[in-house]
Specification:
The protein is mainly beta. Helix content is about 0%, strand content about 25%. It starts with 13 loop residues before the first strand and ends in a 35-residue tail after the last strand.
Length: about 350
């Protein structure tokens, strides 16, 4: 079980070039081991995947909020560790009383897992311990923190609860503990934290409540963003404010609908997370996606404040911007170089015949 760690100075999987995460290192811990609060942040774009906030119960994520830096996170290991039955916080990032900006980055396959409750003997008089809850499969944002995500993708992250303590030693009247729950498969926003997502794509994130986004308090705003395809918990959940500034899309109607140009309850028709060009994996908009060309040039920063997508591809490409982190060619599907689009004439297509 890990306590608070010292400030780390070298970590496998950290590339200092082409900065990745805005923000900076918080209070210690080890990335790739069992530590306390996360130890690294940075400034810029990149990718973090396959982190687990609580391989040991009740840990916190691999990255803390602090002051500047310039780390490109390519792949990091396990962050966190703590007391049994504790909450798992932030599979990739914990932001507590800090400011973090994430630009042109991908966070995928991270997990915040609550700790398991302790067992109870069959002849005991008390129930098993309750499992802890997991908050923020990718990011846990709390305590007056400011989080801004721009031109970035959060995919297949999950927040899960720990198991309740079981009875051992035979059958008696002792009761097992209750299982914990998961909140915010992509992002959990609590304790007056503030989160802003602009030209972001969240897809296939999982939690019991708020598969994509969970807000208990504070505010979360969406602009030109996609939240979709959460297998459990709905795309958005919680009692806190989640609102759209405009031109955002969610697939089940739980996140948006009040902003100008919002599209609620519609499938964005996303491709898989893969290399579509650029330095990070993205999810392309496939043909017939309602997100294609949905933002008129000059509206909501299209072509003015925001002139490129996550890969660095120019926005807009066909007179309007696409919603989300990926800008297509205006026709749907992947963007192909012009020299790959060739038609040779004359072209004759006819039934095959064996007759000469």
């Amino acid at each position: 079980n890990g306590g608070d760690g010292g400030n780390g100075t070298s970590v496998g999987g950290i590339d200092g070039s082409n900065g990745s995460f805005g923000g900076g290192g918080g209070g210690g811990g080890s990335v790739g081991g069992v530590g306390g609060d996360g130890g690294f942040g940075g400034g810029g774009g990149g990718a973090a995947s396959h982190n687990v906030a609580a391989l040991n119960p009740g840990g916190q994520g691999g990255f803390g909020a602090g002051n500047g830096g310039a780390f490109r996170v390519v792949l990091s290991g396990v962050g966190g560790g703590g007391g049994g039955g504790g909450a798992g916080l932030g599979g990739a990032i914990v932001n507590a009383a800090g400011t973090i900006e994430i630009v042109a980055s991908t966070l995928s396959n991270n997990q915040a897992a609550g700790g398991n409750g302790g067992g109870t003997p069959a002849n005991g008089s008390s129930a098993g311990g309750d499992g802890g809850s997991g908050y923020g499969g990718a990011i846990f944002n709390s305590t007056g923190s400011d989080l801004t995500i721009t031109n970035s993708t959060l995919s297949a992250n999950q927040a899960t609860g720990g198991s309740g303590g079981q009875i051992f030693g035979g059958a008696t009247g002792a009761l097992p503990g209750s299982d914990g729950s998961g909140f915010g498969g992509g992002i959990a926003n609590v304790n007056a934290g503030n989160s802003s997502l602009v030209f972001a794509t969240l897809s296939n994130n999982t939690a019991a409540t708020g598969g994509g986004l969970y807000s208990a308090s504070g505010s979360m705003t969406l602009q030109n963003s996609i939240v979709a395809n959460s297998p459990t918990g709905g795309n958005c959940g919680g009692a806190g404010l989640i609102s759209s500034i405009g031109f955002s899309l969610d697939s089940d109607g739980s996140c948006v609908g009040t902003g100008a140009g919002d599209i609620a309850g519609v499938n964005p028709v996303l491709g898989p997370l893969q290399n579509n060009g650029g330095s990070t994996n993205t999810q392309a908009l496939l043909a017939d996606s309602p997100a294609i060309n949905a933002i008129p040039t000059g509206s909501s920063g299209c072509g003015t404040t925001f002139t490129a997508d996550q890969r660095g591809v120019t926005r807009p490409r066909a007179g309007a911007c696409d919603i989300g982190a990926f800008e297509g060619n205006g026709l749907g599907g992947l963007t192909l170089p012009a020299d790959n689009l060739k038609i040779y004439l004359p072209l004759l297509v006819q039934p095959y015949s064996t007759q000469r």
